[in-house]
Write a structure and sequence with these properties.
By secondary structure, the protein is α/β, with parallel strands linked by helices. It folds into 2 domains: 3-120, Rossmann fold, CATH 3.40.50.720; 124-284 and 315-334, 2-Layer Sandwich (Dihydrodipicolinate Reductase, domain 2). The protein has 9 helices and 15 strands. It has helices at residues 14-22, 37-47, 55-62, 76-84, 100-112, 127-135, 168-185, 283-300, 310-329; strands at 3-8, 27-33, 50-52, 66-69, 89-93, 116-120, 142-150, 188-196, 207-214, 219-225, 239-244, 247-252, 256-261, 264-269, 333-334. The strands form 2 sheets. A 9-stranded mixed beta sheet has the order 14-13-12-11-7-10-9-8-15. A 6-stranded parallel beta sheet has the order 3-2-1-4-5-6, sandwiched between helices. It binds nicotinamide-adenine-dinucleotide (NAD).
Length: 335
């Protein structure tokens, strides 16, 4: 049985979605849509799909099993609400929403119709992160996590709209990091945060440092900078140090995972395989898109609930908005 999908938003990142879908058995993206007719036509020709410029017209005509939304955040609510009337599963790119109200409306629209809603949070699906999660049992109860995404890569070349985003680091990569932290360490009860504008050529805050307290009592420190001078630059890797009562896991540059225990250190390679359609250093992200999408098929087939769901991601949005608030007010915010 083939699951028939459609893609909305034929921009920069959607190419990764399309390449990955094309290699997943039992899935066919039958139609693509972009308000820019040339972009829709380009993806349709490259991937053997039908092209549309109007999402409503496409959904009414094609009646897909699932809708993959790869547009920027401003369009998400209208498109998710529309898609919920036409498919069994909706996938929405991050950032899920700009406001809790929009996020709640999307979750409610899908829940009311029994439609599965996933947010395309691929960082937790990166191989080094999956491996770290799988090895966590060896360090005992997790007590502390330091997660850092610091680099100087020119993200504005492929995504020029980012240069005008106010709370850039928190809303672009911060929410990926918060999703990973919640996945590894559990829910957050309070947050303090400092933001910085480092790059004089952008208008928003392109760096932040957040301090989180978890329900378990564990503490996490989350850092992000888009204007660090590092050689070698670890982009696009996230580096981590996770301490438990019995040991420590360390994710270092060059895709090395180190397990420190009371009897010594074990170190192994966690570099993802570069997909045949991919290229370094993007293979980290490209492989994670394929892993995320493979589990989306399991959701369609009723084998998994999906991670993260819209409802789960709503709490990550709440945390991100709380971090923005904490940075603006200089106060710790309770969740
Ligand atoms: N998960 C990741 O690792 C990752 C990486 C990069 C970007 N992203 C996210 O992906 C999303 C898209 O980013 P991008 O850089 O590809 O943006 P982009 O601007 O290159 O592409 C978005 C496309 O959506 C189209 N579009 C907008 N509204 C539409 C509508 N109502 N109907 C049909 N088409 C519409 C635009 O014309 C554009 O072609 C963003 O939310 C971004 O944060 C995620």
């Amino acid at each position: 049985m083939t699951h028939r999908g459609v893609l909305i938003g034929c921009g920069f990142f959607a190419r990764n979605h399309m390449e990955a879908w094309a290699r997943i058995d039992g899935v066919k993206i039958v139609a693509v849509c972009d308000t820019d007719a040339a972009k829709a036509a380009g993806y349709a020709a490259a991937f053997g799909a039908e092209a549309f410029t109007d999402a409503g017209a496409m959904l009414a005509r094609v009646k897909p099993d699932f809708v993959d939304i790869a547009t920027t955040v401003q369009s998400h609510r209208a498109l998710v609400e529309l898609a919920a009337d036409h498919a069994r599963m909706v996938i929405c790119q991050k950032p899920f929403a700009e406001t809790l109200e929009d996020g709640q409306a999307m979750v409610a629209a899908c829940a009311a119709r029994g439609v599965a809603l996933l947010v395309h949070e691929n960082f937790r699906w990166q191989r080094p992160v999956r491996e770290m999660k799988a090895a966590m049992g060896a360090v005992g109860s997790p007590r502390f996590l330091r997660l850092a995404f610091r680099h100087g890569y020119d993200i504005y070349a492929n995504q020029p709209y980012l240069a005008g985003v106010q709370d850039l680091a928190l809303t672009d990569v911060g929410l990926h990091l918060f999703d990973m932290v919640r996945d590894l360490m559990g829910d957050v009860t309070r947050v303090a945060c400092e933001t910085q504008r480092r790059n004089p050529a952008v208008t928003g805050q392109d760096a932040f440092t957040a301090l989180l307290r978890h329900g378990s009592g564990a503490v996490s420190s989350v850092e992000c900078s888009f204007y660090s001078v590092l050689d070698p630059d670890p982009f696009p890797q996230s580096l981590a140090l996770l301490e438990g009562d019995e040991g420590t896991l360390e994710l270092t540059a060059g895709y090395r995972l180190r397990l420190h225990s009371r009897t010594g250190v074990r170190e192994w390679d966690v570099e993802p395989v570069c997909p045949d359609w991919g290229a370094r250093p993007w293979h980290l992200i490209q492989e994670s898109v394929a892993a995320f999408q493979a589990q989306a098929v399991a959701v369609l087939e009723g084998r998994e609930a999906g991670a993260p769901t819209g409802a789960h991601n709503l709490e990550t949005l709440r945390l991100t908005l709380a971090a923005i608030d904490a940075a603006k007010t200089g106060k710790t915010v309770e969740l």
